[in-house]
Write a structure and sequence with these properties.
Layout: H1 5-31, H2 39-58, E1 62-65, E2 68-70, H3 73-84, H4 86-103, H5 108-128, H6 132-135, H7 138-155, H8 161-215, E3 220-226, E4 232-238, H9 240-246, H10 250-253, H11 268-280, E5 282-290, E6 296-308, E7 311-320, H12 322-334, E8 341-347, E9 353-358, H13 362-365, H14 378-381, H15 386-402, E10 406-414, E11 418-430, E12 436-444, H16 446-464, E13 468-472, E14 478-481, H17 483-489, H18 493-496, H19 511-522, E15 527-534, E16 540-551, E17 557-566, H20 568-614, H21 621-645, E18 654-657, H22 658-673, E19 678-682, E20 689-692, H23 694-711, E21 717-725, H24 729-733, E22 743-750, H25 757-762, H26 780-790, E23 794-799, E24 805-812, E25 835-839, H27 843-855, E26 859-863, H28 866-876, E27 880-886, H29 894-903, E28 907-914, E29 922-923, E30 926-927, E31 933-935, H30 940-952
Parallel strand pairs: 19-21, 25-26, 25-27, 27-28, 28-31
Antiparallel strand pairs: 1-2, 3-4, 3-7, 5-6, 6-7, 8-9, 8-12, 10-11, 11-12, 13-14, 13-17, 15-16, 16-17, 18-20, 21-22, 22-24, 23-24, 29-30
């Protein structure tokens, strides 16, 4: 971009951003500030909304170069600190900082610094110059904006020096011209908006009070002065209802006094009411108004005295009670036909009470006659349940005190009916003597209470159910969900009520699936099945659902009830179990193959060794025999990998530091992967001590690195990491085979081609490979899997096509071991004169063993199975020097044979041999202490060395 175009483009971008900011803030301050919230909640919501506005302007930046962007967040955050205070400003700053970290790039630290400077300067200015946020001085707002953006330009020098100079040189003029003006505009806008909102609130409040008093009242309202002796003056104001009801114009009424519209003159009741009004400042009484046309209008007057312009005035509300009077008459006629009891209840100033009127329903509700309670209400209170009498009395006195509607549900204990529920609703009025009179009705709600209790029990059961319960309308709109639904989906009840059940759709089921389901439900049939749905956070889960139609008495479907169970974890565990069973079956097969194959390889290597010894040095066939031996070694390696996968290999575990292992291997690994692929290590600062077989662990790491090398292209990257973790219970619940506690984590990460889901499912299967033909045996990763599992660890793999692969190994942290004392090793001896009992069920191997042992000078007694070996040892007549036996044999195995011979004193020392071990001599793949073992396939030299070590070493190192 050339320098000439830059200011213009930057100015345009800044004007756009400032305009967007002004519009958003204008809308916010013009609409949001009309709502009434508690201050703390208001501050938090202010911060969130300002943060959202900030994110909106940050989403439309002007980009100088990749990672170096400019927007007007400094204006918004500075004004936020100045006008809104610490809490909103800091919340908005945190949101802006999080988004800037997400954007990343070369300008990250500069951007964060600008955010801190903007909020900090705004808060500091607010503290030092609080009047600015009230007056909105344009000069001071411009000074504030200029200082803020000079500091913003200074923050550019957090960039590399050359970039900072170039950036400041290119943006200084637009920034120092546009940004302060934007600050002024935003500040002035907020001040004006606040003034307008406050003025509108004051005006609206005043108008609302006046309108509520005069225009919106259903009753006639009169306002007049009160002179000495409670003499009423002329009306000062009246509402339209008063004019319409009495037939006067407003001007005519304002020439009259309350006495002029009194139809009956001053009665004793009115004099008492005026006395109460003068004494207490308020009164409630009845009178009859005289309309202009002579009509008599019974009214209920509620008057209150208050001070207005220094003198007492009266505000009276006159309610037309014509209908109520007629209703009283009708009520009297109908009350006996209404279920329950219709009543008047009077509370005297001295605390006495009675039911001046009650319908015949009193006989059923309280099992008392109306006459029994007309003068004294005590018989009724004697029927109220002892646990409810106090709260009911308190509610009566509260209603009398506040003249609030009395509503109460309570229990009664009746002689004939027993325990019953009653509900009373009554409206009070103040009587001239200061007492209170209620008009109300008491109903029997025993059946409703029983139904509510039953429903409560049902709802409690549903709310506590582990399964999700959803009630939906006929169109699928959600009416109710239980807490289990909220827990599984992440949606609160209020968030989904009224929404269609399709809010959970994941897109994993096609239209035909839903069509079939709705066809069944619409036909009135139940539907059962599985489906994949989506939680609020976007993650998917699998559920088992049973959906049933709910019909009304006419058979019409009015709703659906669904009982759902989240089976995601169950399916994952089932998948793990199936995979584990499959791997175990393959492992058993691989172990059996390895056993037979190792026997064959032992024979091949042994006979080759015998033949080579008979050939002269110059014989051309020696090279051919060497090739045969080399191929046998390669075949032995394959069987070793098969046994590693099936976890049947024998381990020699030691406590080692994986940091040291990776450090020692890194140089060799770099040579192996070549110069076109980079290898880096990031090791935990603490020692990563684990108990594993060092050689096998090196092979595991080698295989993973080589596998990563094959996955990356030229210029690829492989990373080795170690870390010590302390996972939570959920981690171990997903990996039940892993010992609880601190773990050493090893990651082998590459940025190669990655794998799809199908490949990830099968990578640990023997002979499965994604490599080209001839470039892999398909046993490397199975060997890794078997070794890690046999070592008490776990292995996870994460990969996506095109995004690389991460293999993660977990091992329990081990305590360091005491180093073994160094000793002197004697040179191997290949011959001896002792007597050896050789037991091998394979004829070829047994004959080979006889030849090798006799060639070494030993006396050999051979047997094809355990029974024959016992008989041969018994015939020998004296203890044998050594038992050399295969471990896995039909009938009696090698361990059983060795224990039998030892118990009878027929053998002193034992060497086991096998190409595949059962649990007879190993525990979890680790050879039992004191067991001498030679692994098939072996060479004659290895056999001779093991025999001499067993015969010449301590007896407890070659025990049965």
């Amino acid at each position: 971009m050339d320098g000439g175009k830059l200011p213009s483009e930057l100015f345009e971008s800044l004007v756009y951003n400032i305009s967007l900011l002004l519009v958003l803030v204008g809308l916010y301050s013009g609409v949001w500030h009309r709502s009434g919230l508690r201050p703390r909640l208001r501050e938090a919501l202010d911060g969130l909304i300002i943060g959202v506005i900030c994110l909106a302007v940050m989403a439309n930046p002007w980009t100088l170069r990749t990672g170096l962007v400019f927007d007007v967040r400094s204006i918004l955050l500075g004004i936020a600190g100045l006008f809104f205070g610490a809490v909103p400003a800091l919340i908005a700053a945190a949101m802006a900082a999080a988004y800037r970290v997400y954007m990343g790039g070369i300008g990250l630290w500069t951007g964060l610094c600008v955010i801190i400077i903007s909020v900090g300067l705004g808060l500091l200015w607010r503290r030092l110059r609080p009047s600015l946020q009230l007056t909105g001085s344009m000069r001071e707002l411009y000074l504030f904006g200029l200082v803020l953006h000079i500091l913003m330009l200074a923050a550019m020098f957090l960039l590399p020096w050359a970039t900072a100079l170039e950036t400041v040189g290119r943006i200084a003029l637009p920034v120092l011209v546009a940004y302060p003006l934007g600050t002024v505009l935003l500040g002035v806008l907020l001040v004006h908006q606040r003034e307008n909102v406050q003025a509108a609130h004051r005006l609206a409040g005043s108008e609302a009070k006046y309108k509520a008093l005069f225009d919106n009242s259903n009753d006639a309202v009169f306002f007049h002065a009160m002179g000495p002796g409670a003499i009423a003056g002329k009306f000062i104001d009246v509402n339209s209802v008063a004019c319409e009801r009495l037939g006067y114009t407003r001007e005519e009424l304002l020439q009259l006094t309350p006495v002029d519209i009194d139809a009956d003159g001053m009665t004793n009741a009115q004099r008492a009411a005026l006395e109460v009004l003068a004494r207490t400042g308020h009164a409630l009484f009845e009178m009859v108004h005289a309309a202009r046309d002579g009509r008599r209008i019974p009214v209920e007057i509620s008057s209150r005295v208050f001070d207005y312009e220094g003198t007492p005035h009266v505000l009276s509300v006159a309610r037309d009670i014509t209908e109520r009077k007629l209703a009283d008459e009708r009520l009297k006629k109908l009350s006996d036909q209404v279920p329950g009891v219709i009543y008047q209840y009077r509370l005297y100033p001295d605390g006495r009470s009675c039911f001046p009127y009650s319908s015949s329903g009193m006989n059923d509700i309280y099992e008392r006659t109306p006459e029994e309670v007309r003068e004294d209400a005590t018989p009724v209170f004697g029927r109220i349940h002892p646990d409810d009498i106090k709260s009911t009395s308190e509610a009566i006195f509260a209603s009398a005190r506040d003249l609030s509607v009395f509503h109460r549900e309570f229990r009664v204990v009746l002689p004939r009916q027993g325990l019953r529920w009653r509900m009373s609703d009554a409206r009070p009025e103040r009587l001239p003597d200061g007492g209170t009179l209620w008009y109300g009705i008491i109903s029997d709600i025993t059946d409703r209470k029983s139904a509510e209790a039953e429903r409560e029990r049902l709802m409690t059961a549903i709310d506590q159910a582990a399964e999700m319960v959803v009630l939906a309308g006929p169109a699928g709109e959600i009416k109710y969900v239980n807490p289990a639904f909220e827990l599984v989906t992440g949606y609160a009840r209020g968030e989904v009520t009224g929404k269609n059940i399709s809010v959970l759709k994941s897109g994993k089921q096609d239209d035909a699936f839903y069509k079939s389901m709705w066809e069944a439900l619409s036909a009135g049939r139940n539907w059962e099945g599985r489906m994949v749905n989506k939680r609020k956070d976007g993650t998917l889960y699998t559920e088992e659902s049973t959906i049933s139609p709910v019909k009304d008495p006419s058979g019409r479907i009015v709703s659906f009830v669904a009982v759902k169970r989240d089976i995601t974890e169950q399916m994952r565990l089932e998948g793990q179990l199936l995979q584990s069973q499959k791997m175990e079956a393959v492992g058993l097969l691989a172990g059996g193959i390895a056993h037979d194959f190792n026997n064959i390889l032992t024979a091949i290597k042994g006979y080759c060794s015998l033949i080579v010894k008979t050939m002269p040095e110059g014989d051309a066939n020696r090279a051919d025999m060497g090739e045969i031996m080399s191929l046998a070694e390669r075949a032995a390696m394959l069987t070793s990998q098969l046994l590693a996968f099936s976890r049947k290999q024998i381990m020699a575990p030691k406590v080692i530091d994986l940091n040291a292992t990776l450090g020692d291997m890194s140089k060799m690994l770099r040579r192996v992967i070549g110069e076109e692929v980079s290898l880096s290590t990031r090791l935990s600062p603490g020692a990563c001590m684990v108990k594993v077989d060092p050689a096998q662990m090196e092979q595991v790491l080698m295989n993973l690195v080589l596998n990563a090398r094959d996955a990356v292209s030229k210029g690829g990257r492989i990373e080795l990491e170690t870390e010590i973790l302390e996972p939570g219970a959920d981690f171990f619940a997903a990996r039940p085979g892993l010992a609880r506690g601190r773990l050493v984590c090893v990651r082998v990460r590459d940025n190669g081609c990655g794998m799809d889901a199908e490949a990830k499912k099968r990578i640990f299967e023997p002979f499965y490979t994604t490599k080209e033909h001839g470039k892999g045996t398909g046993l490397g990763l199975p060997m890794v899997y078997g070794t890690v599992k046999q070592s008490g660890g776990e292995i996870d793999v994460a990969s996506q096509p095109g995004e690389g692969t991460v293999f993660t190994l977990y091992f329990p942290v081990a305590d360091p071991e005491q180093p073994a004392r160094p000793g002197l090793e004697a040179p191997p001896i290949e011959s001896g004169t002792e007597t050896i009992l050789l037991v091998e069920d394979e004829d070829q191997l047994r004959r080979l063993g006889e030849r090798l042992l006799r060639a070494g000078g030993y006396t050999v007694i051979s047997a094809e199975n355990g029974k024959a070996a016992l008989e041969a040892a018994a015939r020998h007549g004296r203890p044998l020097d050594l038992l050399l036996t295969d471990v896995v044999m039909p009938g009696m195995g090698g361990r059983e044979l060795a224990l039998a011979l030892t118990a009878r004193g027929l053998v002193r020392r034992v060497i086991y041999m096998s190409g595949y071990t059962e649990d007879t001599i190993v525990k979890h793949g680790v050879l039992e202490a004191g067991i001498a073992f030679v692994y098939k396939p072996f060479t004659p030299e290895a056999l001779y060395a093991k025999i001499r070590a067993a015969l010449d070493g301590p007896a407890d190192q070659a025990k049965a």
